[in-house]
Amino acid sequence: MKMVRGRVSATIKAPLSAAWSVASDFFSLHRWVPSIQECYEIERNVRFCRSYPDARGLSISVKEELIYLDNWSHSLAYKIVDGNMGLEDYTATVKLTALGEGCCLIEWSFTMSSSSSKSKQAQEEFLAYGIRNLEKAAMGS
Predict the structure, then answer these.
(1) How many domains does the chain divide into?
(2) Distance of alpha carbon 133 from alpha carbon 60, whole angstroms
(3) Is the pTM of this model over 0.85?
């Protein structure tokens, strides 16, 4: 397997403070990512998340550990410590930057071991989906 890097970024129409309030609540992913059925703290800085079942009745479950959360730089990082996603050595970073006029930039990047470019593409699609929903949640809709 080789180390793969991926990154998704987007400008959203939400103030930095509102977007960071959503993104920095590490144990509430299910509140803004509709495909996540539940997400909760299972031990200090570790969350468990499970998706809704897909058409085949399969759901994804994952344990993720918060590596850091920095309110000053509006960034956080986490890693997958267990799960059935098939992602190895997965670490992700989320960074928000104010752009003015009620907008901010969200950058969500990751590294992982993978033997398939499909894994990278699927992960980038999921993160883009997450950013779109973060914008909705930050704007209260």
Answers:
(1) 1
(2) 19
(3) yes
Give the CA distances from residue 128 to residues 6, 46, 125, 134, in Å, rounded to whole numbers and listed in that order: 11, 23, 5, 10
- Give Dmax (Cα) for the chain: 44
CB contact at 8 A, 90 and 73: no
Residue with tokens 């993720």: 64
Segments forming the whole domain that contains residue 28:
2-138
Digit-coded pLDDT (tens) for 44-101: 999 999 999 988 888 999 999 999 999 999 999 999 999 988 788 999 999 999 998 9
Task: Report the distance separating Cα 104 and Cα 13, nearest Å.
Answer: 7
DSSP annotation string for 2-31: EEEEEEEEEEESS-HHHHHHHHT-TT-GGG
DSSP classification of residue 33: -
Structure tokens belonging to residue 90: 């997965």
Indicate which CATH number applies to the domain containing 123.
3.30.530.20
Q: Is 14 exposed, middle or buried (0-12, 13-18, 19+ CB in 10 A)?
A: buried
